[in-house]
Amino acid sequence: MSPDLKTILIIDDDPGIRGLLTDYLEDQGFQAEAFATCRSAEARLRRGSADLVLLDLKLPSESGLVFLQELRRSMQTPVIMLTGASEEADRIVGLELGADDYVTKPFSPRELLARVRAVLRRSGPVAEAAPDPAPLASESYTFSGWTLKVIGRRLISPLGTTVNLSNHEFNLLCALSRNMNTPLSRNELIDLSRVSGDEVFDRSVDVLIFRLRQKIEPDPASPQTLKTVRNVGYVLVDGGGPDAPSEGA
């Protein structure tokens, strides 16, 4: 195997899925390694890093969520969750624990491949080096006690502390701030925040919105500042501005 190939670990108790994904990903130019248990994958990660993990959340004798939590304590390897259609609560917990995306079973290998490429691109150095929207010399925005300073790329809380944002989180929040109280569709947010690429999906925006709410909302389950606008997309509402018609999360 070439050392330049991206290494993907597959954790799933179903041998059919392990075989299918291993063959498909290797055909697409990745190095794929499959494991039936989290413990065997954990032992592999102790021997060397991987570029991405595909993690089945529902394993017979162990919890994929517990493995994800343990993984995040020591490394930031991107994780895509493989979940059932009825496992919404687990998906939410997984995102809170730091998963990067999810795919619902049964899934198309082509869709999974697209999400793998998108997550790798967002997590790689090329994505982090993407150009920022050109700022004005003193450009900053305030909303609900928060201050977003474009120069210096800083988000300051109402208590005066700096909150860390990823490159994509910052660009998305900047796009929303520049259009305060104006609902924006997912496609508009992708264009305005440069969260773009051949295989980026609407869900990329949804995951970033979820993470921003964890950082700026007192109650992320009932957002008052970063709202969902039914049949449109999302809007950033200043605490002193008009409410947007929303459906909560």
TrEMBL record:
CDD domains reported in the protein's UniProt record: trans_reg_C
Keywords of this entry: DNA-binding, Phosphoprotein, Plasmid, Transcription, Transcription regulation, Two-component regulatory system
DNA-binding region residue numbers: 138-238
Ranges of residues in domain Response regulatory: 7-120
GO CC terms: cytosol; protein-DNA complex
Record Gene3D superfamilies: 3.40.50.2300, 6.10.250.690, Winged helix-like DNA-binding domain superfamily/Winged helix DNA-binding domain (1.10.10.10)
Keyword Transcription regulation carried by entry: yes
One annotated GO molecular function: phosphorelay response regulator activity
Domain OmpR/PhoB-type, first and last residues per copy: 138-238
UniProt cross-references to Pfam families, sorted A to Z: Response_reg, Trans_reg_C
Membrane-spanning ranges: none
InterPro entries linked to this entry: CheY-like_superfamily (IPR011006), OmpR/PhoB-type_DNA-bd (IPR001867), Sig_transdc_resp-reg_C-effctor (IPR016032), Sig_transdc_resp-reg_receiver (IPR001789), WalR-like (IPR039420), WH-like_DNA-bd_sf (IPR036388)
Residues recorded as bearing 4-aspartylphosphate in the entry: D56
An individual GO BP term: regulation of DNA-templated transcription
SUPFAM superfamilies hit by this protein: C-terminal effector domain of the bipartite response regulators (SSF46894), CheY-like (SSF52172)
Name this polypeptide is given: Two-component system, OmpR family, response regulator
